[in-house]
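Repro:
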Amino acid sequence: MKKSILIIAVALALVTGCRNQEQNINADIEIPVSVEDIKLRSIEEFINTTATAFPKGEILLKSKITASYYLEKNPLTERPWQLGDKVKAGSLIARLEDKEYVNSIKLETNELNLELTESELKKQESLYAKGGVTLKDLKTASINFANAKSTVENGRLQLDKTRIVSSIDGVIVDLPYYTQSTQVETGSTIVKIMDYQVMYMDVQLPEKYISVIKPGQVVKITNYTIPRDTIIGNITQLSPAINADTRTFKGNVTVNNPNLLLRPGMFVKADIVTNHKDSVIVIPKSIIISRQRGKTVFIVDRGVAAERIIETGLENSNEAEVTKGLAKNERIVTTGFETLSNKSKVKIIK
């Protein structure tokens, strides 16, 4: 009996010793973590949507007559106009030549006739003032002058059809190729020009945001082709009606694009800023652990991890404002927190 008691006592001593040794080992383990100092900064809450960008200004110039085509030169490059060239309002893009068409207008003859009728009108006005002609003679001269003036103006309008001129500042986005002097038919596209220094987008927004989104709110525009640039726009119009099929309402966004980074037809991501705060504690959402007792994070104090229960305010897809539970300049754990427990020893590696 005494022997059995002795064996049990020895076994218990060995187990207890192993456990104490294991606890001592565990107590000495330092878990590697990365930390960053908590600083006050700004955070924005926004609603995500997508849309296609369109230019505010666009013209498609077509031939209004059948004539021979001649592409003009860009005065800045001294070479024929090309796709991507910037144009000014009034720039001559191409000429259309048809001598028979020009001769039929008889502009020079009509301009001479205008001069004659103008001289005759002045003469009749002078004579009428002196009583030398009747009112009928004066009105006849006036009618002749008006008709001659209209004929000349119409002739000039007809001649304008031989000149393809841009009516806006913009960029050439389509320029069909025609061999010089080839004949183009009436209605042929000569050039397409877009002014996209200002862009607009139509967005479809979920019904639940109809009381949140307001005209004037800032919209941040991004596209994968310009990853380092964010272009700023604004909500300019909102429809008060809900689409019964999609449960969405329509909004219009206007975007200033002075550097032409945003291109017509681009599919973009649009973040509508609905709330903003400055000088608050902001942390990555990815480091927040959800537990039964609430949202928790870890800070490091004197080489030991301390668990903190926090409360959050504004949030977006990546960040969250902390309204309670953290203080400025504390060091918060950003990586390695998954294996931490309260009072764990840590080794800061970054």
